[in-house]
Amino acid sequence: MMTSYGKTARVRYRGTLADGTVFDSTEGKEPLEFVVGSGEVIHGFDEAVASMEVGESRHVVMPACDAFGERIEEKVELAPMYAIPNAKDIEVGRLFYFVTEEGLRFPAKVLEVREGMARVDFNHPLAGKELAFDIELVGERE
């Protein structure tokens, strides 16, 4: 029987980029648990699991629009260094996390620092990339 929206799925997975680089995996960890259809995981992953049966394994390739979205140039902004928390610890090219007043964390990357200003990319690091997943649905519950 296929899993359905609203059930909690337990999955093992391995996510790779087009060149075969592994960007995420449950290998050596507990399976990932999430409520199918809740938006806790990217759309393409959610849809793949929703059409699987417990014990089934599947290889899924998803375009950027079903993963972390397309890269949006408008999400690259110029910001004064004084407005960036812990700016002294930031390294150009390295991922760091901004925290909103509500406590939400989101990734960003400083592309360049010049004359007290930083060019910051707020796109998700995997935005614009096609992703492949090997997924195994190992269990589910209400």
What features would you describe in this structure?
- With about 140 residues, this protein is mainly β.
- The protein has 2 domains: about 10-70 and about 125-140, Chitinase A, domain 3; about 75-120, Thrombin, subunit H (Beta Barrel), CATH 2.40.10.330.
- It has 1 helix and 9 strands; from the N terminus they run βββαββββββ.
- Strands 1, 2, 3, 4 and 9 form a 5-stranded antiparallel beta sheet that branches. A 4-stranded antiparallel beta sheet has the order 5-8-7-6, with no helix packed on it.
- The mean pLDDT is about 90.
- This is Peptidyl-prolyl cis-trans isomerase.
Looking at this protein, list some descriptive labels:
single chain; 142 residues; mainly beta; Thrombin, subunit H; 2 domains; five-stranded antiparallel beta sheet; PPIase_dom_sf
Taking pLDDT < 50 over at least 5 consecutive residues as the criterion, the unreliable ranges are: none
Q: Bin the helical content.
A: under 10%
The share of residues in extended strands comes to: 35-45%
Instruction: Compute the separation of the termini in Å.
Output: 14 Å
Which H/E pattern describes the elements? EEEHEEEEEE
Q: How many β-strands, per DSSP?
A: 9
Please work out how many helical segments DSSP would assign: 1
Total individual domains: 2
CATH topology of the largest domain: Chitinase A, domain 3
- Can you identify the CATH class of the largest domain? Alpha Beta
- Helix-and-strand structural type: mainly beta
Task: Evaluate the radius of gyration.
Answer: 18 Å
Query: In this structure, how is the largest beta sheet organized?
Result: 5 strands, antiparallel
Task: Summarize model confidence as the mean pLDDT.
Answer: 91
CATH architecture of the largest domain: Roll
- Give the overall form: elongated
Pfam families: FKBP_C
Function: Also involved in hydrogenase metallocenter assembly, probably by participating in the nickel insertion step. This function in hydrogenase biosynthesis requires chaperone activity and the presence of the metal-binding domain, but not PPIase activity.
GO cellular component, one term: cytoplasm
Organism: Gordonibacter urolithinfaciens
